[in-house]
Amino acid sequence: MKICINQKGFTLIEILIAVVILELITIATATIFLHINKTNIKASKNYEMIKIAQIYMEEIKCNHIAVGNKYYSIEALEDKEIKFQKVPYAIILKIHHTHYDGLYKVNIEVKDKKNNIYILENYINTLKNDCYDEISIKKEELVP
After folding, report:
1. Can you give 22-83 as a three-state secondary structure string?
2. Predicted local confidence at residue 18, as pLDDT
3. Which pLDDT belongs to residue 7?
Protein backbone atom coordinates (compact mmCIF):
# COMPACT_ATOMS: atom_id res chain seq x y z
CA MET A 1 0.00 0.00 0.00
CA LYS A 2 1.33 3.43 -1.09
CA ILE A 3 0.73 6.55 0.89
CA CYS A 4 0.62 9.71 -1.23
CA ILE A 5 1.45 12.88 0.56
CA ASN A 6 0.51 16.07 -1.20
CA GLN A 7 3.82 17.99 -1.50
CA LYS A 8 2.67 21.38 -2.63
CA GLY A 9 4.92 24.27 -1.49
CA PHE A 10 8.59 25.09 -1.32
CA THR A 11 11.40 23.47 0.58
CA LEU A 12 13.60 25.42 2.95
CA ILE A 13 16.51 25.30 0.47
CA GLU A 14 14.37 26.79 -2.31
CA ILE A 15 13.24 29.63 -0.04
CA LEU A 16 16.84 30.37 1.03
CA ILE A 17 18.00 30.47 -2.59
CA ALA A 18 15.18 32.87 -3.48
CA VAL A 19 16.06 35.13 -0.53
CA VAL A 20 19.75 35.19 -1.54
CA ILE A 21 18.85 36.08 -5.14
CA LEU A 22 16.55 38.88 -3.95
CA GLU A 23 19.29 40.22 -1.66
CA LEU A 24 21.79 40.28 -4.53
CA ILE A 25 19.32 42.17 -6.72
CA THR A 26 18.59 44.63 -3.89
CA ILE A 27 22.29 45.26 -3.22
CA ALA A 28 23.00 45.80 -6.93
CA THR A 29 20.07 48.21 -7.28
CA ALA A 30 21.05 50.15 -4.15
CA THR A 31 24.62 50.46 -5.41
CA ILE A 32 23.41 51.82 -8.74
CA PHE A 33 21.17 54.38 -7.02
CA LEU A 34 23.99 55.50 -4.70
CA HIS A 35 26.29 55.95 -7.70
CA ILE A 36 23.63 57.92 -9.59
CA ASN A 37 23.07 60.15 -6.54
CA LYS A 38 26.81 60.77 -6.13
CA THR A 39 27.14 61.64 -9.83
CA ASN A 40 24.15 63.98 -9.60
CA ILE A 41 25.63 65.82 -6.61
CA LYS A 42 28.99 66.22 -8.39
CA ALA A 43 27.31 67.47 -11.57
CA SER A 44 25.28 69.95 -9.53
CA LYS A 45 28.40 71.35 -7.85
CA ASN A 46 30.22 71.55 -11.19
CA TYR A 47 27.27 73.43 -12.66
CA GLU A 48 27.34 75.89 -9.76
CA MET A 49 31.08 76.49 -10.26
CA ILE A 50 30.53 77.03 -13.98
CA LYS A 51 27.72 79.54 -13.34
CA ILE A 52 29.87 81.50 -10.88
CA ALA A 53 32.72 81.72 -13.40
CA GLN A 54 30.33 82.77 -16.16
CA ILE A 55 28.75 85.48 -14.01
CA TYR A 56 32.14 86.97 -13.17
CA MET A 57 33.24 86.78 -16.81
CA GLU A 58 30.12 88.69 -17.92
CA GLU A 59 30.75 91.34 -15.28
CA ILE A 60 34.39 91.69 -16.31
CA LYS A 61 33.26 92.21 -19.90
CA CYS A 62 31.54 95.36 -18.66
CA ASN A 63 34.87 96.63 -17.34
CA HIS A 64 33.36 97.23 -13.87
CA ILE A 65 35.17 95.36 -11.11
CA ALA A 66 34.61 96.32 -7.46
CA VAL A 67 37.17 95.06 -4.94
CA GLY A 68 36.28 96.14 -1.44
CA ASN A 69 34.98 99.70 -1.82
CA LYS A 70 37.08 100.54 -4.89
CA TYR A 71 36.17 100.12 -8.53
CA TYR A 72 38.76 98.99 -11.05
CA SER A 73 38.95 98.74 -14.79
CA ILE A 74 40.45 95.81 -16.64
CA GLU A 75 43.52 97.94 -17.37
CA ALA A 76 44.07 98.62 -13.66
CA LEU A 77 44.08 94.89 -12.86
CA GLU A 78 46.25 93.93 -15.81
CA ASP A 79 48.94 91.30 -15.01
CA LYS A 80 47.71 90.89 -11.43
CA GLU A 81 46.29 87.87 -9.69
CA ILE A 82 43.26 88.62 -7.53
CA LYS A 83 42.20 85.99 -5.00
CA PHE A 84 38.89 86.19 -3.17
CA GLN A 85 36.30 83.98 -1.50
CA LYS A 86 32.72 83.50 -2.52
CA VAL A 87 31.76 80.93 0.10
CA PRO A 88 32.22 77.98 -0.36
CA TYR A 89 34.50 78.72 -3.34
CA ALA A 90 37.93 80.26 -3.75
CA ILE A 91 38.17 82.33 -6.91
CA ILE A 92 41.32 83.49 -8.69
CA LEU A 93 41.06 86.18 -11.34
CA LYS A 94 43.92 86.82 -13.80
CA ILE A 95 43.85 89.45 -16.53
CA HIS A 96 46.60 89.74 -19.15
CA HIS A 97 46.87 92.17 -22.04
CA THR A 98 47.46 90.63 -25.45
CA HIS A 99 49.52 92.26 -28.20
CA TYR A 100 46.29 93.55 -29.79
CA ASP A 101 44.93 96.93 -28.72
CA GLY A 102 42.01 96.60 -26.28
CA LEU A 103 42.11 92.78 -26.19
CA TYR A 104 42.60 91.07 -22.83
CA LYS A 105 42.89 87.44 -21.84
CA VAL A 106 40.84 86.78 -18.71
CA ASN A 107 41.24 83.60 -16.66
CA ILE A 108 38.81 82.78 -13.86
CA GLU A 109 39.56 79.78 -11.66
CA VAL A 110 36.88 78.53 -9.27
CA LYS A 111 37.96 75.98 -6.66
CA ASP A 112 35.80 74.23 -4.07
CA LYS A 113 36.82 72.80 -0.68
CA LYS A 114 37.60 69.40 -2.23
CA ASN A 115 40.01 71.05 -4.71
CA ASN A 116 37.72 70.50 -7.69
CA ILE A 117 38.68 73.24 -10.12
CA TYR A 118 36.81 74.87 -12.97
CA ILE A 119 38.74 77.27 -15.20
CA LEU A 120 37.03 79.67 -17.58
CA GLU A 121 39.27 81.46 -20.03
CA ASN A 122 38.06 84.12 -22.42
CA TYR A 123 39.27 87.04 -24.49
CA ILE A 124 37.58 90.36 -23.87
CA ASN A 125 37.60 93.25 -26.28
CA THR A 126 37.39 96.43 -24.23
CA LEU A 127 36.73 98.46 -27.37
CA LYS A 128 33.25 96.88 -27.54
CA ASN A 129 30.69 97.98 -24.99
CA ASP A 130 28.21 95.21 -24.19
CA CYS A 131 27.67 95.75 -20.46
CA TYR A 132 25.06 94.89 -17.89
CA ASP A 133 25.98 95.51 -14.24
CA GLU A 134 29.15 95.52 -12.19
CA ILE A 135 31.03 92.83 -10.31
CA SER A 136 31.27 93.20 -6.56
CA ILE A 137 34.04 91.66 -4.46
CA LYS A 138 33.80 92.55 -0.79
CA LYS A 139 36.97 93.47 1.09
CA GLU A 140 36.54 90.56 3.54
CA GLU A 141 36.41 88.14 0.59
CA LEU A 142 39.96 89.02 -0.50
CA VAL A 143 42.67 86.46 0.17
CA PRO A 144 46.12 87.89 1.00
Report:
1. HHHHHHHHHHHHHHHHHHHHHHHHHHHHHHHHHHHHHHHHCCCEEECCEEECCHHHCCEEEE
2. 94
3. 67
Q: If we measure between CA atoms, which residue out of 66, 68, 64, 57 comes closest to residue 110?
A: 57
Please determine, for residue 133, whether its predicted confidence score (pLDDT) is greater than 60.
Answer: no
Cα-flanking dihedrals φ and ψ of residue 136, to 5°?
-130, 115
In one letter, which amino acid is 37?
N
> What distance in Å separates the CA atoms of residue 91 and residue 143, rounded to the nearest whole number?
9
**Predicted TM-score (pTM) of this structure:** 0.68
Cα Rg of the chain (Å, integer)? 29
Give the Cα separation of 19 and 11 in Å (integer). 13
Q: What is the DSSP letter of 84?
A: E
Q: What whole-number distance in Å separates Cα of residue 130 and Cα of residue 10?
A: 76
Over residues 64-80, the mean pLDDT reads 80
Average pLDDT estimate for 33-41: 95
